[in-house]
Each structure stands twice: as C-alpha cells, then as structure tokens.
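Q: Structure for this?
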Amino acid sequence: MTDLDAFRSETRTWLEANCPAEMRAPIRSEADLCWGGRNWTFQSDAQESWLKVMAARGWTVPDWPEAYGGGGLTTEQAIVLKEEMQRIGARSPLTSFGISMLGPALLKFGTEEQKKQYLPQIARGEIRWCQGYSEPGAGSDLAGLQTKAEDRDDHWLVNGQKVWTSYADKADWIFCLVRTSTESKQGGISFLLFDMETPGVSTRPILLISGSSPFCETFFDDVTVPKDQVVGEVNKGWDVAKYLLGHEREMISGMGLGGGGSLGAAVAPDDPLLRAEIAAFDVDSLAFQAMSERFSAMWKAGEAHPASPSMMKYAGTELNKRRNELVMAAGGSDALEWDSERSKGGKAARDWLRSKGNSIEGGTSEIQLNIVAKHILRLPGA
Amino acid sequence: MLLTDDQKMLQETAAGFLSEEGSIARQLRHWRGTDCSDGFGHALWKQFAELGLTGICIPESQSGMGLGATEAALVLEEIGRNLTPSPFLTTAAVAARAIEGTAHAERWFPGILTGDAVLALAIDESPRHAPEQTALEAKRQGNGFLLNGRKQFVVQGDSADMIVTAARTSGAAGTSDGITLFAVPRGVAEVENVTLADSSRAARLTFDNVALDADCVVGEVDGGWVPLARALDAGRAGAAAELVGVAAGASAMTFDYLRQRKQFGKLIGEFQALQHRAAHLYGEIEIARAAALKAAHLIDSGDERAELYVSVAKAKAADVASLAVREGVQMHGGIGMTDEHDIGLFMKREAVLGEMFGDVYYHRNRVAELSGY
C-alpha cells in the first residue's frame, strides 16, 4: 500500500465517523452554505460540529501550512480528501472569501505577523471577509479607483465608496483597494485590511433583478485604519489585487460545472430541437469539466499560464448562463413562477437572472478576452 | 491528469519528427501534387516504424511499445498540427486495436511494426456514419462465408494489405448483435479509389459474392460488436486528438498572421473585433484538448465513462476545429482563399476528420442517449 493509499483509507474512515449525515445531503440552495464569521448563526448542530471537526484538523484549508491553521496536506493528499468527500457527498464545511480569495494573497504577500493573525481565523471560520474592489467609476477599468487612503503618520484615513461588495452587510472585515498616490494609475494603489465595525463604515444592499441582494454599496467616511494593515508594499497593491483576482476567477469558473450532472438527464426535453440544443450544451459542459480538472492539476503544478484563470472564468460563466437559458426553455411557463412553493420560490427564474451577473462580476467576459489576447496570445496593442 | 515525464518525452519526439519530416511542404503538398494511389509516403511510414510509433498500441509481449490511447493521442495531435498524411490513425491506433488478442494480430503485427503493412477499416455503408446499421451480408457457405454488399469512406482502403470489415451474419440492420468482423485480404473486393477534399484517399468497396474462409473472422461470429466498439472508441478518441492538432495548427498560423498583417496603418491583431474572436478560439482549443485527453485517459484506465467521454471529445474537437479553420480562412482574408496558402489545407482536413467515425451531430446525439435522454 502506498502512502497515498494509506492516507485515503484513513481519511475515508475518519470522514465516515465524523461527517454528520445531515452534512451529506445535497446543498439545496445558498441558504445551506456555512459562511461563518462573528455574527454567524449555524442552521443546525450538524453544521456547527462539521465546521468544528474539520477546522480542528485544518481541513477547511487542507493545503495551507499547519502553522496558519491549515492541514499541511500535499496537493495529491488534498485531491484525495476532495475525492473522499465527494464520495460520501460531504458538503464543504465552510464557504469563505477568506479561503478562496484573501488567504492565497496573504500566503504570497503577507508578513509573518499578518499570516499568523488572519489566516487561522479564516481557517476556523471566525472572521467573514468581503472584497472592496469596484467603485461607481471604476468597474472594468478597476485601476481607475478613487477611494482614498491618506497617510496620517500613525494611521490611514480612508474616504470613498465601493460598490458590488459581496455580502458587505454580513461581513466582519474587508480587503480593500485604496488610492495612496495619484502619481501613477496602477502604481498608486494599496491593499488594505480593516474591520467593518470601524466608525465611518456603512453599507447599503443593492436589490438585483433576481430579487436578492448579495451585493452592497459600501461607504467610507473618515475611517481610521492602523498602519500595519497594508498587505504588500504601499503603492504596490495592484500586484496583490491581480494575484487575488486570479483566484477569484478560478473560483467563479467553477460555476461552469453547474452541479456536474447532465442537463438533459435533469430536464428530460421532449422537443427535438430543444433536445439537440441541450445535447450540444452537455457536450460543452462535459468538455469543460475535463478542462476544469486539467486546469486545476496544471495550476497546482505550476504548469498553467498565469493568465489562464481568465480563460477559465470566461468559459465557465458563459456556460453557466447558457445552462440557465436552457433550464428556462425546458421549464416553460412553470419556470416563470416567481414565488410559489411549487417553483421553490421561483428558483429557476431567479437563478437564471442571477447568472447574468457571472460574466460581469470578477471582470467581464470582454475584459477576460482582452487579458487572454494580451498576455497569452501576445497580440499587438492589446 | 497531468502528462507523465515519459509522455512528455514522447510528445517532444513526435513533435520534432512530424514538424520536420512530416511537414506540409514535405508530405501533404508533395503527395497531393503527385500521381499516386496512396496519398501518403511509404518512406515516412517506415520512419514512423523506426521510431517505434507504428507499434505504439501493440503489446510489449508482441514487440510493440505497449502504450495506450493517451500516447496515440499525443502523436495524433502532432500529426494534425502538421497535416501529415499517414496510416497512423487507421493502422496503428485503430485496426491494431480491432485485431488485438486474435490470431490476426500474430499475422499482421510484425508487418505493422516494420512499417510494411497498412490496414484499413470498412464500417460505413451510407454517407453518414451509423455502425449499428451494418447491412453488408455475410452468409455461411461451406466452411466459410459469402459476402455481398457495399462499403464507403474506407480510408486508405486501396493502400491496405488487409481491411477489417464489419458485416452482418445475423439480426437486422440497426442492432449491434449479429455483426461480425472479417479480416478481408487485399484484392478480393472490388475497389474504387476516391480522392477526398483533403487529397487523402478512401475506397468504395463492392462485395459481389466474395467468398472468405472462416479463419477470416476476427473474434466471435455474431460478436463483432465488442472489438468494433473498442476500435471505434480508439478511432473516435484518435480523430478527436488529431482534430485538436488541426485546430492548434490552424490557429497558430492565424494568430501569427494577426501579428504581421497591416491594414489602416495598423497590425490587424490590434483590432479588438479580432482579438476577442482569437481569445475565444484559444480557450475553446484548450477545452477540446482537455476533453480529448480525458477520453483517452478513460479508455486507458478501462473506465465505464469512456464511451461517453469519447463522444464528448469527438463532438467537441470537431466543433472547435471547425471554428478554428473557419476563423483561420476568414482572418487571413483573400490570401486564405488561395490554394497557395496552407490555411485552406487545414479546412479540408478538418472536414474529413470531422466526418470520420461520426460527425458532431452523431456524437451529440450519442451523448444524449448515453445520458438517458
């Protein structure tokens, strides 16, 4: 038996013993996710104990170093853990922007003190983070951001406004791009961390076409931030921001997997032309799953082009939009119901409308294509 | 699903060999301008053999390389990139799989290993691929069989020393039971050698009371579907890999053109209208390659999802290669329409490979059926 086989066998036994039955049921909606944080109310004892036991082993972040609350697993072991969790249908114990976005950036750019302070809290689900990137005047042109952080010797003084801040009204802390110099566009940005309870921070949820409010406007009015809460060098936050965006795009591209199964098998289309469209979609979807597995392996092995998350994000989100269009077509007038119990509160229609944001958030499809053209294809003037 | 070091080495060897010896100028353009019945060069096939590539899927116990569909796919992608005409797909990747484990393997493997033998497959009987519809009749007669019927799109059929032929020994057309594979030697069926759009050759075969000995049967009588399905999986995965190569070759040529061609005082690659189409195409090719490699990997590991992914790979690769050659000709503008420029050769090859072993529509439908709808 190889070491990896032994690890698989131990992991299987441990998961069987420790993953509550309730946490092996498929996730029905976003309400089933565990986000953690200071103000988090667990939906059940099972959800709480699942997070606790997994965090105690460092398995909310299996491949982070143990010193920062991680599991210290190798890439191969982390894959085995994922496979074994999938095998029993175990839910992810923690959904967190701290894990998927901030953590990797801190591991790369943070000081030792910052890593020790923030990473274990993320791993245990104690602090819920939000992302302060876009502004009303800085969407696709993100580096044009204007939120200002002035150096007041012993602190930063932050003033300005962010928009599309995911769950800002529920988050404990924010990682935020601020302008610390006006001398250069990209070279005047810094990456700042601060508590959302700091005086001067306020949020206002934005109602989307889907009827939900996952995003907020976030306002900063003379917010005081300690000097040691800059990640990376002052005025070099754009490097941190881009690195983090790579991870965000990788995460969003996962939407293209749409739950994994065959769409045609799920909706059983009886119209021959719709069946043909769905079959074409299933081919693209299964091919994208293969891409996703390959990309993930290449990314971890350092064989993927640094700009390749843009390709994945573009393909995955466009696919998810197409999937939702086809679900609506197959559902006919049933899929138009907005709040009936029969329609699970208008799930099909709301998911369909929400999916339109996938190719906007985290950088639009057009921006991703620009990045591929410039950095991968090296086309002139791109 | 990363390539192993051995696989990367094989890929490099194949890339070097095919871009040099198998280049468009040395092979495809040479043979299309030459009056020959094969459409490929036997000398190059011998070179494949010297590198061990003709025996890539032949077991080590029979002096082959003992490798699988993944390694064949790596070679086929390079063949596609260089539009190299050769019997590699039909003989080394597919026919060898059809006869493996039978007496015919002992008869033909030595010739394949030395690059002397060329094998072909006769499956299609109508313009569109439908192997279950096999109707070519094989009636028992004495100690053997009497064959009557027709085959078409028998790639390199006129060059082949033996043609693995699907015939019906029982049951009705449309059922997979009752199909039997025959190893049909050269010269017994009537051959019409046809030149296809990409300058490759395919045969139309007519069997008019062709008598074959019982030992011509490959595997079991009435049980031909098993080796046929195995060969079809190998052929579909292989054609998918070659299509990825065609797409990659055509797009590389096109992206180079975008970096060189000037209009309105600018390089045309500066125009965002073209940049976005190029970037989209790049991503699609990456996805098609991942699908082709996954299909090959599942075949090699004997995974039950192989069938499904083989159809996913063939459909996706043909779809993407078609996009690559259409964008290729369009972005080249007028020069792309000329016979002198190579980009049009990619378009022609894509059309033939796209049809081989079932087109996009065939495989989308198969994905739907295998998924239960």
